[in-house]
Amino acid sequence: MEHYFTNNSNLKSDFRTINYEYAGDTITFTSDLGVFSKDKIDFGSRLLVENYLKRGESNISLLDVGCGYGFIGLTLAKFKNTNSTLIDINKRAVHLAEMNIKNNKIVNAQAFESYIYENVTGKYDAIITNPPIRAGREVVMGILKGAADHLNDNGTLWFVIRKNQGAETIMKLLSDTYSMEVVEKSKGFYIIIAKKLLTLV
What we know:
Layout: E1 16-22, E2 25-31, H1 43-55, E3 61-65, H2 71-79, E4 83-88, H3 91-103, E5 109-113, E6 124-129, H4 137-146, E7 151-162, H5 167-174, E8 178-186, E9 189-196
Parallel strand pairs: 3-4, 3-6, 4-5, 6-7
Antiparallel strand pairs: 1-2, 7-9, 8-9
Helix pairs in contact: 1-2
């Protein structure tokens, strides 16, 4: 079985269009086979974005890890004016994200291929992710714990995870790296803001 966090060059394309409305404006995404939640915006990602739109900072640098076709990073680039960098291991996802940057005329965003943070060289004010749980604990923890190395001082990690996917266990595993706040719980999904703990030299 092929997963959205793998590459399958033999997979055919079957484009579809997804719209997201906010504050009387609309952003339109092209999606395709072989990417996460290809037919609609999944509930967890929508909840994460809605919390960032309410609580998150504008005009900052932001990294969207596991971006898929770009819903999270591009929505925040458009409506919060974040300077968004989008990464994914899935080549098709990155291609779609680049298409959606161009089609929505978003000048404050870029996308490139990266396995977790392998090709990431900069640091960001915020990192945001709906981590690929099916990729396994090692990948998920690599994204969440590894974010600390790519955050500026006082940077924040925003993520969504379901209670039945081990949200509370994962929070315990991250407690030596971040101070965390669960800002919303809905339908078993936790929205968590994690602030990097500063180490004393």
